[in-house]
Amino acid sequence: MSEPQVSDPTPVLALADVSKSFGAVQALRGVRLSLFAGEIHALAGENGAGKSTLVKTFAGVHRPDDGQVLLNGEPVVFHSPADAQHAGVAVIYQEPTLFPDLTVAENIFMGRQPRGAFGRLDRGAMNAAAEELFARLGVVLDPAGPARGLSIADQQVVEIAKAISRDAKILIMDEPTAALTGREVERLFAVARTLASHGCALLFISHRLEEIFSLCQRVTILRDGAWIATESVSDLTEDDLVQRMVGRELTELYPKVAVDPGEVALEVSRLTREGVFTDVSFNVRRGEIVALAGLVGAGRSEVARAIFGVDRWDAGSVAVEGKPLRAGSPTTAMAAGVALVPEDRRQQGLVMELSIERNMAVTGMKRLRRGPIIRGSAERALASDWATRLQLKYSRLSDAVGVLSGGNQQKVVLGKWLSTDPKVLIIDEPTRGIDVGTKAEVHRLLSNLAAEGLAVLMISSDLPEVLGMADRILVMHEGRLTAEIARADATEEKVMAAATGRGEAAA
Amino acid sequence: MSDVKNRLMSWESALLVLLIGSWSVASLTVEGFSGTSNMSFLLLDVSEIALMAIPLTLVVITGEIDLSVASTLGLTSAIIGTLWDAGLTIESIFVIALLVGAVCGLVNGLLVTRLGLPSLAVTIGTLALYRGLAYVVLGDKAVADFPQVYTGWATGSIGPIPKPILLVAVLAVIAGVILHATPLGRSVFALGYNQEAAYFAGIRVKRIKLWLFVASGVFASLAGIVYTLRYSSARADNGTGLELAVVAAVLLGGVSFFGGRGTLPGVLTGVLVFGVLRNALILADVSNEVLNFVTGLLLISSVLAPNLATLVRNRRSRTVTPPPLMEGTSV
């Protein structure tokens, strides 16, 4: 274990042999972690490794069953999140919750607004203070503008500014980059480095390993609730890190096998939805994985939604195996063999309160009937069949799907759609928020499905995934297709150039 | 799911205990309560409430509400009276009455699904609208003298079981099977929990809601027919205020006001509990105002009780069970 290069050897915040269990589930077992002023420390582990519980222990949501939280070397007990906040701990979540109708500055100073004469809000002072915070963070944002309509990246910056204005010394960032584009990630990293240089301690959580390597100095690895190692990032390779996280060697992360593409399965011509995307034409052949790359907001998910019929299109056409689809009807799209694994698992992919088996069976209820009645045994058999094929980790099929980890939830969504025996699978951000082990499984699965003749349209913001998995890459920029890049010619630079509208890459 | 199921089961068993308890107390303390003829009357007296509660159960599980049912009942009754006065045959009047109910439901459904208006506001509006229409149609007249064949059916019974209750039983079984064992029923639960996810799974959310509103209207006018025949009196103010009793019974029956949860057996038990309380209070010469008070109390406590139960459960098990959706519980 190497020490960071800081003068004060006492960690500002630390966990000493902390254990925490929930009923029979041991979420943390003797975990230790020290955060020093001025360091950016990564927390790595698969889903279910205990990262969230650790964060919540720092944030005052959970109290350890055993072991201690140390603040500047002294044991403390955070009785509530407010306690932790007073002690200078701030948590920035993946999707911040701002008050959309208030201004940016009002959100930052919520509850502590500067007052003028007669107790009136002193907007001038408030905006100036916010401006100063943004200057310290090195970002440009309008303090007087409304919070509504800010990108997730900007919302995170507002949250960070809020934390700084409260004199937070310890910043915990729980998967802040999951929904950000490349450029936004860079800005967030710049902010993080500025904070660290001012003496803040940062704990950074991300499933993207390259981010850990580019941003952090040290990394603590958890597996199954236990502390595995704390290492200097420079002493590790990505493979070392992955191996310690999963406890086994992963073969290839992107195992796409070469397939000779067959007939055209999905043909999209001149598809237009006014104000959203324009004149989008492409096809996907049987056996092919075609990636749709681009920045968040380029219109990729919207094209997928239109093909599947969740949204209407205004002009153009979509055909599956030569047969045209009707606009705006998911039922006809499903009947024609289209399946959509949507971007937002929790809101669109699954009904969290319903059981695993109900969620799996929801797309194929008509085939499980005898007369008008659904046969419970057939439903269960279908669910357990797909659970086995997808190596789902669960205790009972009758459990609410919400208790599964992100990766296993994604498997349920996949099972629900694969059970319809689709011809075209559209999958939007297949591995967002999924740990590396499951990620590799999903990739292998997609590759096998393509090899069996399925046409796959994959939307992804994860460039290594796009480059590793796709036979062809389509790039969208501001609602238009700007490039088509063959697998052999694809580089991150070419894709990014097309995605940001720098035209020379357009083929 | 098993957890949800357990909760429902325990809610239903609690309800069953409540039913038996109130029944026993009423039998012991209220004179004339436990006689066979009163039992028959008790059942007959909840037949309209039960008819309206059956489709409303499904409507509320989808996360919507229909408060216009009692007004649809009144409008149906007024139209039956007017047409009977005008000399149409009673059979054709029944058909027209059911069509009127369907149109009432269709209007609610279209406003909710096509224009995206909140059903609470829409059906408060049509609650006033349909009742007003009933007065426009029939004024404050009362029409009587319906054919004895039908009024006899509405008041008759087989053994101790009133004939309208047999109709209720048949419809309840059909609705129960639809809700709990068919794709339509599964879709109703799924969209009640999460409309967006249901839509993304190819469930025709709007169409299902529209048809449930239509069913609610048709069942309300069926209740209107039974009501009119049972009292042999068609009036515009028939069933005024009954919507609250129906909603109270549905919520008491364990259907979540926020959608997703509920069972038909639970609702039928809720209807019976409501019927026992009302019957016992009437026999005990309690005034109408107090009856309204009791309905209100039932409504509030049935919305409150599940929340209280959850609160107590959470408090008791704060350190024992993991919060749902926690990371550590997956493996």
UniProtKB/TrEMBL annotation, chain A:
Residues in ABC transporter domain copies: 13-249, 259-503
Membrane topology: Peripheral membrane protein
Keyword Repeat attributed: yes
Keywords assigned: ATP-binding, Cell membrane, Membrane, Nucleotide-binding, Repeat, Sugar transport, Translocase, Transport
GO MF terms held by the record: ATP binding; ATP hydrolysis activity
Gene3D superfamilies registered for this protein in UniProt: P-loop containing nucleotide triphosphate hydrolases
Location(s) in or outside the cell: Cell membrane
Presence of keyword Ribonucleoprotein: no
Matching PANTHER family: CARBOHYDRATE TRANSPORT ATP-BINDING PROTEIN MG119-RELATED, D-ALLOSE IMPORT ATP-BINDING PROTEIN ALSA-RELATED
The protein, known as: Sugar ABC transporter ATP-binding protein
UniProtKB/TrEMBL annotation, chain B:
Coiled coil regions in record: none
Membrane topology: Multi-pass membrane protein
Keyword annotations of the record: Cell inner membrane, Cell membrane, Membrane, Transmembrane, Transmembrane helix, Transport
One Pfam family linked to the record: BPD_transp_2
Location of this chain's protein in the cell: Cell membrane
GO MF entry, a single one: transmembrane transporter activity
PANTHER family, per the entry: ABC TRANSPORTER PERMEASE PROTEIN YPHD-RELATED-RELATED (PTHR32196), AUTOINDUCER 2 IMPORT SYSTEM PERMEASE PROTEIN LSRD (PTHR32196:SF71)
Protein name: Autoinducer 2 import system permease protein LsrD
Organism expressing this protein natively: Actinomadura rudentiformis
